[in-house]
Amino acid sequence: MPIFKIYTNTLKSEIPDGFLLEASSFIAKQLGKPESYVTVRVHPEQMMCHGGSTAPCASVELLSLGSLGPTNNNEHAKAISDFIEKQLKIPRKRFFINFVDLDASNIALGGETFG
């Protein structure tokens, strides 16, 4: 049940058509999870700065039940950075990625937790 969140000062009109679905497919493949469990949220036009500059930047969060951790996060960071830089034209040095490995008892779908 990955949740991929991108907060960016990029204009909504500059987010490519189809980005949400491309991001959903990308995250599912990257984490080896069914796409039916993936949620993608993009928050454009945020008032934000990074490193003392308001040039294009982002704050990225990836939450997942499993598939994250010390052995996987470097690989995920490179792939996500490549994806965002290519798709949104935000340089990889202009965003942090926060990985959150969720506990199954804290996640519910259809009225029941996973744990």
Describe this structure in words.
The structure is a single chain. The two termini are 13 Å apart. The relative contact order is 0.24. The protein is built from 2 helices and 6 strands. It is 25% helix and 25% strand. The protein has 115 residues and is an alpha/beta fold. Strands 2-1-3-4 form a 4-stranded mixed beta sheet, with helices on one face. The mean pLDDT is 97. One of its GO terms (molecular function) is phenylpyruvate tautomerase activity. It holds the Pfam family MIF.
In short:
It comes from Potamilus streckersoni. The chain has helices at 19-31, 73-88, and strands at residues 3-8, 39-43, 58-64, 95-101, 108-109, 112-113. With 115 residues, it is an alpha/beta fold.
Q: Regions with pLDDT < 50 over 5+ consecutive residues?
A: none
Oligomer: single chain
SSE order: EHEEHEEE
Shape: globular
User: What is the average of the pLDDT values?
Assistant: 97
* Count of DSSP-assigned helices: 2
DSSP strand content:
25-35%
The computed structural class is alpha/beta
Main sheet specs = 4 strands, mixed
Work out the helicity level: 25-40%
Instruction: Tell me the radius of gyration.
Output: 14 Å
Family: Belongs to the MIF family.
Keywords: Cytokine, Isomerase, Secreted
EC number: 5.3.2.1, 5.3.3.12
Catalytic activity: L-dopachrome = 5,6-dihydroxyindole-2-carboxylate; 3-phenylpyruvate = enol-phenylpyruvate
